[in-house]
């Protein structure tokens, strides 16, 4: 069979986010009920990998994403479901160290006494950058910020990207708290990690109930749920998202493994 190359969608599509996994927390990840590879961003021709959890190398190669084209790997926090494949993805990005390039961004405690990145790989990178609250960073054509430290058992930052004429927020693992409202205001797209269905006082994780509240407060054009805990998964995230859309009047989507969100959808919803 001869494929007509001109009609094929490029991989990854321009100005898109590819979900390499949607599993959050221990049981979903250890049983791989869904995948857990993080997110691959292609923004203004700059490719970035965020939170390469277990299986990222498998998910990315299976989806024909080329690690050597990455300009950076960004880690929001050191927990294993976000960081397990950091080393292999740095090796893949730098072609086994033969083509040193790219940056690695991470909170200081991911690089401290028990670093997530092996020391022998560090020389393959252009830079290792420590994330701090309230700072701005540039990679290729993309700028991003880490507006606030989240409430989570390890040092954790959410990300706000400004690219392709849009502002996108990734609200990674956190307990719900008031500061989130200001930190992620004005984002047109918010991606929220929802491990829980209902708030649990003893866990520093966002629940669906709190995500609904936050979505109403932030009023994005689109909200995407991901990083599901077991109970969220059992509640069928796509049904939860549909219910939240009805309740909030804001378009809420449930990510699924391999989903590609193209930023042009934000214009369609404008
Ligand atoms: Zn975590």
Structure description:
This protein has 270 residues and is an alpha/beta fold. 23% of the residues lie in helices and 27% in strands. It has helices spanning 25-30, 56-62, 80-83, 86-93, 179-183, 208-218, 230-234, 237-248, 264-268, and strands spanning 16-21, 36-43, 46-50, 70-74, 103-107, 127-131, 135-139, 142-146, 159-163, 166-171, 189-193, 222-226, 251-254, 260-262. The strands form 2 sheets. It has a 7-stranded mixed β-sheet with strand order 6-5-4-3-2-1-14. The longest helix has 12 residues, at 237-248. The model has no long low-confidence stretch (mean pLDDT 95). Bound molecules: zinc ion. Residues 77, 79, 152, 173 line the site of zinc ion.
Helix-and-strand structural type:
alpha/beta
For the record, give the distance between the C-alpha atoms at the N and C termini, rounded to a whole number. Answer: 41 Å
The biggest sheet amounts to:
7 strands, mixed
Shape: globular
Approximately how much helix is present in the residues? 10-25%
The succession of helices and strands, N to C, reads EHEEHEHHEEEEEEHEHEHHEEH
User: Which stretches are low in confidence, meaning pLDDT under 50 for 5 or more residues running?
Assistant: none
Q: Compute the average pLDDT.
A: 95
The fraction of residues assigned to DSSP E strands is 25-35%
Q: What strand line-up does the widest sheet have?
A: 6-5-4-3-2-1-14
Could you tell me the radius of gyration in angstroms? 18 Å
Number of DSSP-assigned strands: 14
Distinct ligands, ions and cofactors found in the model: zinc ion
SS field, number of helical segments: 9
């Amino acid at each position: 069979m001869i494929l007509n190359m001109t009609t094929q969608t490029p991989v990854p599509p321009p100005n898109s986010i590819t979900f390499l996994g949607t599993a959050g927390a221990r049981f979903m990840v250890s049983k791989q009920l869904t995948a857990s590879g993080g997110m691959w961003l292609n923004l203004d021709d700059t490719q970035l990998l965020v939170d390469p959890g277990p299986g990222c190398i498998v998910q990315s190669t299976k989806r024909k994403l080329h690690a050597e084209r990455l300009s950076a790997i960004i880690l929001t926090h050191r927990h294993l479901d976000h960081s397990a494949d950091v080393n292999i993805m740095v090796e893949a990005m730098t072609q086994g160290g033969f083509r040193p390039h790219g940056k690695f961004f991470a909170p200081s405690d991911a690089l401290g006494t028990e670093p997530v990145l092996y020391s022998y790989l560090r020389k393959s990178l252009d830079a290792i950058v420590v994330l701090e609250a309230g700072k701005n960073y540039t990679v290729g054509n993309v700028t991003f910020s880490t507006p606030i430290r989240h409430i989570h058992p390890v040092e954790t930052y959410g990300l706000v990207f400004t690219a392709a004429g849009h502002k996108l927020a990734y609200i990674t693992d956190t307990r719900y708290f008031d500061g989130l409202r200001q930190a992620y205001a004005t984002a047109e797209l918010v991606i929220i990690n929802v491990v829980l269905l209902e708030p649990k006082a003893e866990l520093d994780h966002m629940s669906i109930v709190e995500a609904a509240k936050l979505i109403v407060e932030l009023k994005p054009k689109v909200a995407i749920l991901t990083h599901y805990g077991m109970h969220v998964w059992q509640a069928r995230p796509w049904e939860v998202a549909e219910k939240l859309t009805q309740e909030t009047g804001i378009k809420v989507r449930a990510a699924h493994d391999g989903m590609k969100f193209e930023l042009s959808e934000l214009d369609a919803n404008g």
